[in-house]
Design goal:
alpha+beta, globular
Length: about 130
């Protein structure tokens, strides 16, 4: 029997991350302790007759922060990977969504091997919510 998360197909996970990154629906698919969400202001959304939209997400794993940000509703997200230490950003790289999703999938796979809740969330992500 493999370790938790050993059944994750990293290519499938990367594809799912890419799919969820297009509309920034990723926070619902990942363990909440890893994700920070940035939403537009309430008043702006209220004037547009909708709930505040997600404008950015950040997934923090160790000293790396994987960010997706967009300038407004419907805008394409920009992917960045930041290296941090003690809250100080040491470097920032803007990368393609494909590269971002592949690197994040690899790191999430590592987290899943030692975190059962993360393994369950990632399993749901790769199976589209199906179990078994």
């Amino acid at each position: 029997m493999g370790t938790a998360g050993s059944h994750l197909d990293l290519e499938l996970l990367a594809a799912q991350l890419r799919r969820h990154s297009d509309d920034l629906s990723l926070p619902a698919a990942l363990p909440p302790e890893l994700v920070r969400v940035n939403r537009e202001g309430r008043w702006k959304a209220k004037l547009a007759g909708r709930q505040p939209a997600v404008l950015g997400i950040a997934v923090t794993i160790g000293d790396q922060r994987y960010e997706l940000e967009r300038t407004g509703v419907g805008a394409a997200p920009v992917a960045k990977i930041r290296h941090e230490s003690a809250g100080v950003v040491l470097s920032t790289r803007t990368v393609s969504l494909d590269d971002w999703s592949r690197v994040l999938a690899r790191e999430l796979g590592k987290v899943a091997r030692s975190n059962a809740a993360a393994a369950d969330a990632l399993q749901r992500l790769t199976t589209g919510g199906r179990t078994g």
